[in-house]
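Case 339 in the screening queue. Each case pairs one protein sequence with one candidate compound; here the compound is phenylalanine. For every case the pipeline is the same: read the inputs, emit a complex structure as tokens, and attach any notable structural observations.

Predict complex for case 339.
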Amino acid sequence: MKEKLNEIQNQAKDDLVNAGSPEEVERVKTKYIGRKGGVINDIIKAIPSLPPEQRSSTGKSANILKQEIGKWIEEAKEKFADKKQAPGAKEIFDLSLPGENKPYGRKHPLTQTIDEIKGIFKTLCFDIEYGPEVEHEYYNFDALNIPADHPSREDFDTFYLGNKRLLRSQTSTVQIRVMEKKKPPIRMIAPGKVFRPDTVDARHASMFHQIEGLMVDEGVSFSDLKYVLTLFAQSYFGQDIKMRFRPSFFPFTEPSAEIDISCSLCKGKGCSVCSQSGWVEVLGAGMVDPNVFDTVGYDSEKYTGFAFGIGVERLTMLKYGIDNIRLFFENDLRFLSQF
Ligand code: PHE
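Case 339 output:
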């Protein structure tokens, strides 16, 4: 009888290994431990007909085996519930089911522009630097030769936080931070957010992005500035881009220029983005004022340099023909998924 029970035990194990579905596991259960017609129950029922000395041990072994098989069956069921495969089971694919639709994310158009510009300047061996958005007045104004009575220091041009801290209104702050840390030669760009309490319209927002540029060495001239910026504009917009340099003023550069790009939205005819002028200002630039070098402890007799600030939103608008800066910040996927 012992041998018979052993045989049943092995058989039940094999059957469970081969069971490929919960239904098959159920069938194994009925076959071995089912109340009616279950192999083990049949043995228990037959105990009275055994020789008396075998009865009690057979009963005990049969019950132990019954419990054991019961446990294996539960385990096999759990495996299916976990979607794990029972050992040896075959996987079933329903090829007629529709696929899962996973919406893919992508970079914001402004991030794409910043990445592209970083790439262009990397090929010119410019380092990428970053500075804080909450700045000290010193870096935003004083060190940049911006006097106390300059209009950009007014409350309606700058977000003050108190305690001489403010939200930086330009990335030129990073020029100072980098020059304090490093000695020339310097070639760097610094992308980041800037903040101004401007009235929002098609071209203005109270937060926007700039990319600052700075190159300092012996013998750097205005023609180097023109060369680098022309190279940049051609790489970004293409060889036929029209640019114009207008004389301008910034306290931290002398001489200074504003650089316009021909308006690609109206092809120069005049529209709301270019204020009907056919040109859009995208850059401020100039030769670093010697006062700034003196402030950071550079020898202004020995070194010269140029600096520039690129408006990232404006550039992106021109490249893709976007006529409203608000679109960048509304998080409307119908807009964002086009890039
Ligand atoms: N910081 C200036 C602005 O925000 C741009 C600029 C940068 C001009 C560097 C000259 C040199 O308008």
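Case 339 observations:
- The mean pLDDT is 91.
- Strands lie at 127-128, 134-136, 159-162, 165-167, 186-195, 207-217, 243-250, 253-262, 279-288, 304-311.
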